[in-house]
Amino acid sequence: MESPHGVYRIGDSGEAVAEIVGKLQRLGLLTGGHDVYDEATANAVRGFQQERGLMIDGIVGPQTYRAIDDARWRLGDRLLTYVPSHPMSGDDVLSLQAKLQELGFAVARIDGIFAADTQRAVTEFQRNMGLPADGTCGPSTFKALQRIRPMATGGRPDALRAREAVRAAGPRLSGKTVVIDPGHGGFDYGWEGYGLRESDIAYDLAARIEGRLGATGVRAYLSRGRDQGPDELARAAFANETDANLCVSLHTDGSMNPAAQGVATYFYGNDLHGATSSVGEQFAGLVQREIVARTDLLNCHTHAKTWDLLRRTKMPAVRLEIGYVTNPHDSARLADPAFRDVIAEAIVVAIQRVYLPPDQDAATGMLRFGQLTV
Hints:
Layout: H1 15-26, H2 39-52, H3 62-70, H4 91-102, H5 116-128, H6 139-147, H7 157-169, E1 177-182, E2 192-193, E3 196-197, H8 198-215, E4 219-222, H9 232-242, E5 246-253, E6 263-270, E7 275-276, H10 278-294, E8 299-305, H11 308-312, E9 317-324, H12 328-334, H13 337-355
Parallel strand pairs: 1-4, 1-5, 5-9, 6-8
Antiparallel strand pairs: 2-3, 6-7, 6-9
């Protein structure tokens, strides 16, 4: 569901705000009558965003708007079917995927998106249950899901499949495909500070990473041109079209507090539903540790989020927030081309280490570009 007018914040009113308030009330996050986006609404939105792994700002933009709409669905509320041009999403899809996985029917990732892999799992379940195998979840399929109990619970078969796919890809970088996503772009500059723009830094870093990956035989694609600024849905769609092995999204951070500083890395994960990209989490840890080991940026660690680029990419994806352009120390480092080279090498090394078996891996911060397995 798309936000009809973009962004809603304190002081706004109208039909869209009334709809947001109504849905928050039905979710039990807001009480009382509200006809305006007030502080109580903003607090409810912040609580929802924190619970759902979204950016916590108390503002309803397109992604939060979609997430609020997704949260209202329970398994059995509606017919679930695969629509290639606009896949259905919601908490009911999350529940369906989790149930199918428990029963041993392969779902690529528990992400709440009814895509082709979920349709295949539903079809296989229907065949096993003697139901019409049409890949659509209707009343008879819901009843069958309710009746069946898994023989064993626990474990992460999706994680095992993901790790096996990495092992089968082999340690060599040559022949692999990586999408590099420079954040923002066009008229969206992102954070600005000390003469730096987030969009410019992200694009420069992307070009440095692209060049290094190309030299190893990796097919590296940038998600945008220098003067373009696609939204996250378009960036995820582009990455999926390339059938990439990995996706790296590049950003810098900023804050009204000039003391805020450091580097953080994010991967797809939803604590509320226990859904995580296992390889994405591993990749995020490798990137974070390599950057921290090679630079003097403060370690702000790795975190699970449900941002669109992380959730909607078929391949493991990470998002980096590399320093604060609003911090004097971080901005000075980011302005230095030699420092950007260090960051680029750290990211390329982390990409290599995703594919290295334990007996061939190197200690964090020790592997150099010339030692990569090409």
